[in-house]
Design brief:
alpha/beta, 2 domains, 13-stranded mixed sheet, 10-stranded mixed sheet, 12 helices
């Protein structure tokens, strides 16, 4: 498919706006969850019959499933007050100049078009519940790489591939918010990299959440064939409102035999956000999954990317950092399941807490009976910047094979007053001294990020230190 061709969804988007008028206000469903609301979303999305049935079945699972028993309380989240679908007043386009000014200015301020011009193979931009812009460089498309929005993939030539993989790694029956996602998901990205194809420059999707009292439920599905490689970047942000917002996205990654996928993300949500995101990868023989994750903002987060090392010699690397400030409760971590022989995982996690922020790291490792030769290394470092903050580590290790080499290290400590005093004696302010110490603590994470994301992460840390984030 040519990079300039209209997708089926873009054509449908034009039909909607031609019918309703280009100046029609954005559309959103009523708050709450009912079969009628799910049917309305399905109508708006022009779902195939199987997806409509999937949504309604997921709603039934949601209604009979209890809230998660792990993590921090979710008392401030009331689904009766959450709007689950908001269509912006914009048709999807491959031409940046045709995106409405209000939306375009938001993404311009975030640097998305500039990043596309200078170093990306393709870009997708979602605003509330719909993708408003999507592009892929022609030379990448000519390699057979498919990068499009999920709505187009659901109805295009890769529809059967979507149906075969959609929510198979993360089924709606696993927990309440995956069932919610299955019922109301909208937007997101579909990527397919054929056998033997290496995408040398990254693809990036960015999700901007702009509606008060609403939820965003994008779905990312990435499939790599044999001996393929890709770096995929996701970013997200939202303004602050005085009402609860919800993010319950879903990321499913399929890494083929001998393939390598790096998935990098910086989540920078506002402090009214409940971030209940789910991410999982399955890795075949000789394949590698690399996670690079930064979690900032949000009121409460549950986020535990999982890697299933299904094939022999499969590998996983996880590098992550969280920063919990005043009023934040961030419950994050990672899980790895070693199933194949001679698999390996290396986990490096860092957390920072300040002004009473609460940070919990959960590291879940499972080694199956037949996973001989598994090698695991886990390192978790936590830094508290004051006596009011809290940091916990919760290791869960289930090893059922004697031929396993595993190491687990966790360190929790406060910032050194002596170090601060020393730096201040050299002319730095207290905030600058703390910022330098924290920057050094976070440096092993930032160096794994693409340059623009490393800059963003360092800026976010600086703002947290100086109290510039609310």
């Amino acid at each position: 498919m040519s990079a300039r061709e209209l997708t089926e969804y873009e054509e449908y988007s034009r039909e909607v706006y031609d019918r309703k008028g280009t100046d029609a206000p954005k559309f959103q469903v009523k708050s709450g969850l009912t079969p009628e609301i799910i049917s309305t979303i399905s109508d708006e999305k022009r779902d195939p019959d199987w997806m409509r049935a999937f949504r309604l079945q997921s709603l039934e699972i949601y209604e009979r499933t209890a809230l998660p028993t792990w993590g921090y309380p979710l008392d401030g989240l009331d689904m009766a007050n959450i709007v689950t679908y908001v269509r912006p007043d914009a048709r999807q386009s491959h031409d940046w100049d045709t995106v409405p000014d209000e939306i375009k200015n938001t993404f311009e301020a975030l640097g998305i078009p500039e990043a596309e011009r200078t170093g990306l193979a393709g870009v997708g931009a979602q605003y509330d519940s719909e993708v408003v812009y999507h592009s892929i460089k022609q030379e990448v498309a000519d390699l057979g790489v498919v990068y499009t929005d999920m709505d187009s993939a659901l109805r295009g030539e890769y529809a059967e591939m979507v149906r075969e993989h959609f929510m198979k790694l993360l089924p709606a029956t696993e927990h309440k918010f995956l069932a919610l996602h299955g019922a109301v998901w909208s937007g997101g990205s579909f990527v397919y990299v054929p056998d033997g194809v290496a995408v040398d420059i990254p693809l990036q999707s960015y999700f901007r959440f702009n509606a008060a009292g609403a939820g965003q439920f994008e779905h990312t599905l990435i499939i790599l064939g044999k001996n393929a490689s890709l770096h995929f970047i996701e970013g997200c942000s939202a303004p602050k409102y005085n009402v609860a917002n919800l993010h319950a996205g879903c990321v499913e990654l399929y890494v083929g035999e001998g393939s390598r996928l790096r998935y990098s993300t910086i989540e920078n949500w506002s402090r009214n956000m409940y971030n209940l995101n789910s991410k999982r990868a399955t890795v075949e023989r000789g394949g590698t999954i690399e996670w690079v994750s930064g979690s900032f903002g949000s009121h409460t987060s549950f986020l535990y990317p999982m890697s299933i090392l299904r094939g022999d010699d499969a590998r996983c690397e996880y590098t992550g950092i969280t920063f919990a400030g005043a009023g934040q409760e961030l419950d994050t971590g990672t899980q790895v399941a070693h199933i194949g022989r001679n698999t390996s995982s290396r986990i490096s996690a860092k957390s920072i807490s300040k002004n009473g922020g609460k940070s919990t790291f959960r590291g879940g490792i499972t080694v199956s009976e037949n996973a001989e030769g598994s090698r695991i290394s886990v390192s978790c470092d936590s830094l508290m910047l004051d006596s009011e903050s809290r940091s916990d580590t919760v290791p869960v290790i289930d090893v059922r094979c004697d031929d396993t080499d595993i190491g687990y290290e966790a360190k929790i400590g406060r910032i050194s007053e002596q170090s601060i005093y020393y730096l201040m004696s050299r002319g730095l302010s207290e905030n600058d001294a703390k910022g330098m110490i924290v920057g050094g603590f976070a440096e092993p994470i930032s160096k794994e990020l693409p340059l623009e994301y490393a800059v963003e992460m360092n800026r976010l840390i600086s703002l947290e230190i100086t109290g510039g984030v609310s």
